[in-house]
Specification:
243 residues; alpha+beta; OB fold (Dihydrolipoamide Acetyltransferase, E2P); five-stranded antiparallel sheet; elongated; disordered N terminus
Length: 243
């Protein structure tokens, strides 16, 4: 049971459905967005600074699909080239099957490399603008969605923390308990609707944080519990339960 002695900001955060939904979206979105931005910067560098040079393909191979690491068959070519710095660089890349079949050992073809990092090279058709765009768009959408949920619930937690520290205590009366659309560990969470009067006698209503079904069933209509409300905004309150 949540009481005034045990209720804390951490308790409220643990029961904050939007916060725990928003955080994974925010983290995943930032990861995707970072990958997308890095890929976009790399593509821009190849397009604006990339140098082309003839490379020799000494070998090619096929990496067959399996259930562990390779979901699809990969057609890989190995190559070596000598950049302007003069030191021979070796590399490998996955290419379309048509390109793999066309190239033969000992043949030359053009590769592009970055002058500041010759080890970063790729054969023709190795650009990843589509992947960079997809990662950036998906990351941006997930980041905005997650940030919106976290920000909205964060504001609620800040208000709750203020009420918990400086709110005016009063008696609240249970209006009803009801299930919500939120679930934690596949258990539907409930909430308690209550009524109270503020410091000037006006009737106010509030809704408790998410509670377990067992805790909700301990409360009946017209039961009394402790409520704290904000003096400056009496409509903002926090259900504390029994003393």
């Amino acid at each position: 049971m949540t009481t005034s002695a045990t209720l804390s900001l951490w308790t409220l955060a643990r029961r904050s459905f939007l916060l725990w939904v928003g955080m994974p979206f925010l983290i995943l979105g930032l990861v995707f967005l970072t990958i997308g931005v890095q890929a976009s910067l790399e593509e821009h560098a190849y397009r604006t600074q990339g140098l082309t040079v003839e490379a020799v393909m000494p070998d090619k191979s096929i990496v067959k699909a399996d259930r562990q690491q390779n979901p699809r068959t990969q057609y890989v070519i190995s190559y070596r080239f000598t950049p302007a710095q003069g030191e021979t660089i070796t590399g490998s890349a996955e290419v379309p099957v048509e390109e793999w079949e066309r190239l033969e050992a000992g043949r030359t073809f053009t590769v592009t490399y970055l002058p500041g990092d010759p080890a970063s090279s790729r054969p023709p058709g190795g650009d990843d603008w589509i992947a960079a765009l997809v990662f950036s768009l998906v990351g941006g959408v997930f980041t905005l969605l997650g940030a919106g949920l976290v920000f909205e619930d964060g504001r609620r937690l800040v208000r709750a923390a203020r009420v918990l520290r400086r709110g005016i205590p009063t008696e609240g009366t249970v209006v009803r308990t009801e299930p919500t659309n939120a679930s934690i560990n596949r258990v539907t969470q409930w909430q308690i609707r209550y009524r109270y009067r503020d410091h000037v006698g006006r009737a106010q209503e509030g809704v408790s944080p998410l509670v377990s079904p067992e805790e909700a069933l301990e409360w009946k209509e017209s039961d009394h519990g402790i409520v704290r409300f904000d003096r400056e905004r009496p409509e903002i309150s926090l259900w504390l339960g029994r003393p």
